């Protein structure tokens, strides 16, 4: 055999070995990228408006594959910010109503995200054409004092219904969707608290969405409550007791890694209540026990959960009145520690966590109110762990 032939065979063997080594094993588990920097956030520096920003929601409203942001403004028209896919936002020229909160979801089944605004004594629905152009429907859904909203399939018929939280001792409401974006009041009157926030999730693992509601105000009976769903959209208050805390915001997520939904309760200091935030662990059946953690001492306004440090568990971003936000990092077992990150932003009443710039880590978009003469500047904080 010639040397040339031996060389050719040798090269062929090398190529085959290299090709084989490049093929993924059929049972291989994808390796998650390792963060290359410690957790930190940088201000994107964009002008994203300011005022009395009280709520926020995100979604791909124009169908271009990235997350846009709709901010609920209480003192002026609510604003829609369109993402270019790299975290650069341009304000839409559409004029939306002043509102106390907003939620995005496909309300009429056309595969585009519509908007449900709470306005206080009224709630309205705006329909998206799929390209991010919204038109108000003719629905005027009455409420006593609507403060917040969450969308979810509450009656199990495959479309999105609305849980409305009402303020000033008024009962919460359930609005049922007919599948075409037309809503009707179910007639349920849930409690007589002063609600500020609601998180939907299957806390008792029976296959339907329950509701954890934050209640605030000056009434001494205010405490977070859980409303259990019967699967058909009928809610009954759980016997669960969280204690008087003047909760301002709530979030559900598996904080301790056991497969069920735990609760983060962000608290204010109304009526001399203790403002520390608390974490409650679920036993899988909707029974919660206080973890004993006392997180912070600020007047919390908002909370959102997400894996901010890319270690596989849920961390917490908490917006505070007159103070910078708290970023609490999870050890994977539900024990949260202060990250010590100090962002120059206060009064974050709306928080949205998503990879807005497409670099693989989770960023934070905040809507800020202007209470007590604070600046009310909305900001996008870009995560730096994958630069």
Describe it for me?
This protein has 387 residues and is mainly beta. 5% of the residues lie in helices and 39% in strands. The chain is built from one helix and 29 strands. The strands form seven sheets. Strands 6, 7, 8, 9 and 10 form a five-stranded antiparallel β-sheet that branches. Strands 1-29-28-27 form a four-stranded antiparallel β-sheet, with no helix packed on it. Strands 2-3-4-5 form a four-stranded antiparallel β-sheet, with no helix packed on it. The longest helix is centred in the first third of the chain and has 20 residues, at 3-22. The model is unreliable at 1-27 (pLDDT under 50).
Task: Give the arrangement of secondary structure elements.
Layout: H1 3-22, E1 41-43, E2 53-59, E3 68-73, E4 79-83, E5 89-91, E6 101-105, E7 114-118, E8 122-128, E9 134-136, E10 141-142, E11 146-152, E12 161-166, E13 173-177, E14 183-185, E15 195-201, E16 210-215, E17 225-229, E18 235-237, E19 247-253, E20 262-267, E21 278-282, E22 288-290, E23 300-306, E24 315-320, E25 323-330, E26 336-338, E27 348-354, E28 363-368, E29 379-383
């Amino acid at each position: 055999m010639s040397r040339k032939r031996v060389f050719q065979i040798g090269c062929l063997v090398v190529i085959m070995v290299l090709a084989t080594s490049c093929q993924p094993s059929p049972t291989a588990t994808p390796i998650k990228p390792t963060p290359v920097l410690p957790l930190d956030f940088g201000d994107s520096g964009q002008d994203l408006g300011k005022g009395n920003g009280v709520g926020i929601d995100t979604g791909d409203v124009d169908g271009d594959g990235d997350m846009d942001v709709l901010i609920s403004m209480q003192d002026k028209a609510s604003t829609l910010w369109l993402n270019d896919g790299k975290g650069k936002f341009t304000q839409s020229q559409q004029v939306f109503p002043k509102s106390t909160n907003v939620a995005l979801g496909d309300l009429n089944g056309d595969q585009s995200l519509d908007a449900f605004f709470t306005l206080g004594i009224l709630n309205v629905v705006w329909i998206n054409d799929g390209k991010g152009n919204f038109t108000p429907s003719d629905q005027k859904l009455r409420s006593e004092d609507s403060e917040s909203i969450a969308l979810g399939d509450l009656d199990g018929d495959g479309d999105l219904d609305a849980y409305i939280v009402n303020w000033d001792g008024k009962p919460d409401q359930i609005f049922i969707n007919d599948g075409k974006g037309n809503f009707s009041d179910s007639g349920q009157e849930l409690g007589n608290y002063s609600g500020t926030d609601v998180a939907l999730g299957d806390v008792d693992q029976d296959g339907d969405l329950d509701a954890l509601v934050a209640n605030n105000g000056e009434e001494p009976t205010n405490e977070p409550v859980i409303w259990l769903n019967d699967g058909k959209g009928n809610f009954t208050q759980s016997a669960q007791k969280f204690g008087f805390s003047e909760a301002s915001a709530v979030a559900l997520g598996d904080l301790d890694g056991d497969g069920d939904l735990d609760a983060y309760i962000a608290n204010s200091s109304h009526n001399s209540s203790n403002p520390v935030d608390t974490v409650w662990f679920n036993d899988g059946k909707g029974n919660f026990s206080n973890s004993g953690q006392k997180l912070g001492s600020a007047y919390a306004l908002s909370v959102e959960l997400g894996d901010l440090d890319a270690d596989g568990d849920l961390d917490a971003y908490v917006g505070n009145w007159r103070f910078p936000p708290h970023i609490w990092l999870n050890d994977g077992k539900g024990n949260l520690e202060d990250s010590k990150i100090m962002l120059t932003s206060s009064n974050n009443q709306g928080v949205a966590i998503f990879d807005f710039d497409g670099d693989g880590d989770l960023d934070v978009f905040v809507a800020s109110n202007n209470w007590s003469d604070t600046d009310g500047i909305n900001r996008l904080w870009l995560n730096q762990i994958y630069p």
